[in-house]
């Protein structure tokens, strides 16, 4: 069993880096960190060096990153994956520098989502200089796509320390790797992709303040404000450039007593199973998975 200690980052390919970066800063509120790497924008949300890396090139998600404890754990994970017939490749030194990690490996999950495990993710000591007062406190969760959500859960729970917190029928599986209700979700879709990337905000007021701001800016609101009955979080989903969906949420449930938690199965046909406030619901737009890692050639960091 491979122990994931946290979610690390999302790496996304964008055809128009300037527009995607402008959106991630001025609209979402992330800080643009000077990564010293032409063609890559590193966006910070919390103490980690970055949580979102936008890489100029083909449009689509490149990888979803998770941390493991250290380099020994990473080597053990590589062996464990290979034992299961999953070929994991080391991320080269330039790739590690770009990701601000000491070491990492990449592999495809059974549905074609590119997953990276990393050790030694860099932190920054200075407070985050948010580009807009959106109230962001941290990278909350990420959500990938798969055609068979139950099979995806079998993969995540048998390979990693991921446990289901709740199901939305066979449409979604919400998984935890620590007491937070979910750090990883899998949504049903025809193929692999990134359904959305979530940032937690400090207060319910931040959700509603951002809602007005986003509407004023002409941003497409995909869903919300509403409240998910699974995590109890108040949410707002909105669409960034090139089909990248962002979510803000506030008030996610923590499952402190792991042993007694029983996952619930919500019926997606029930009005209210997605939004307890009964607002209009829609499935967030996904960014498709890039089949080839088209971010190459990686340029040498200065
Ligand atoms: C939009 C999906 C179907 C949904 O309802 C997701 C639930 C939650 C939650 O309970 O907080 C998420 O944020 C999520 O899985 O992304
Ligand atoms: Fe979410």
UniProtKB/TrEMBL annotation:
Domain of life: Bacteria
One Pfam family linked to the record: Glyoxalase
Keywords: Dioxygenase, Oxidoreductase
Keyword Membrane set for record: no
Family annotation (InterPro entries): Glyas_Bleomycin-R_OHBP_Dase, Glyas_Fos-R_dOase_dom, VOC_core
A single GO molecular function term of this UniProt record: 2,3-dihydroxybenzoate 3,4-dioxygenase activity
Coiled coil (residue ranges): none
The keyword Oxidoreductase appears for this protein: yes
N-terminal signal peptide: none
EC number: 1.13.11.-, 1.13.11.14
PROSITE patterns: VOC
Ranges annotated as biased composition (Polar residues): 282-295
Region (Disordered) location: 278-302
Limits of the VOC domain: 6-120, 138-251
Name by which UniProt lists this protein: 2,3-dihydroxy-p-cumate/2,3-dihydroxybenzoate 3,4-dioxygenase
Species this protein is from: Saccharopolyspora phatthalungensis
């Amino acid at each position: 069993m491979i122990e994931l200690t946290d979610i690390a980052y999302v790496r996304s390919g964008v055809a128009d880096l300037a527009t995607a970066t402008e959106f991630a800063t001025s609209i979402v509120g992330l800080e643009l960190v000077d990564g010293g790497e032409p063609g890559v924008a590193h966006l910070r949300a919390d103490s980690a060096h970055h949580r979102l890396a936008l890489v100029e090139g083909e449009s689509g998600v490149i990888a979803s990153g998770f941390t493991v404890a250290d380099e020994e754990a990473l080597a053990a994970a590589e062996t464990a994956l290979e034992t299961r017939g999953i070929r994991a490749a080391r991320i080269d030194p330039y790739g590690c520098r770009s990701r601000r990690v000491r070491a990492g490996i990449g592999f495809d999950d059974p549905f074609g989502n590119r997953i990276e495990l990393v050790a030694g993710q860099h932190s920054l000591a200075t407070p985050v200089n948010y580009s807009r007062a959106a109230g962001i406190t941290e990278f909350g969760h990420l959500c990938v796509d798969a055609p068979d959500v139950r099979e995806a859960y079998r993969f995540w729970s048998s390979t990693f320390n991921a446990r289901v917190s709740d199901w939305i029928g066979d449409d979604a599986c919400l998984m935890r790797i620590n007491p937070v209700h979910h750090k990883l979700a899998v949504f049903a879709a025809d193929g692999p992709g990134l359904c959305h990337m979530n940032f937690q905000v400090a207060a319910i007021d931040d959700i509603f303040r951002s809602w007005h701001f986003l509407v004023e800016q002409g941003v497409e609101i995909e869903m919300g404000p509403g409240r998910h009955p699974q995590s109890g979080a108040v949410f707002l989903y909105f669409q960034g450039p090139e089909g990248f969906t962002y979510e803000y949420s506030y008030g996610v449930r923590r499952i402190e007593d792991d042993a007694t938690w029983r996952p619930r199965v919500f019926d997606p046909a029930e009005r209210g199973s997605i939004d307890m406030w009964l607002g209009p619901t829609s499935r967030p737009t996904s960014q498709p998975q890039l089949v080839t890692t088209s971010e190459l050639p990686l340029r040498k960091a200065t």
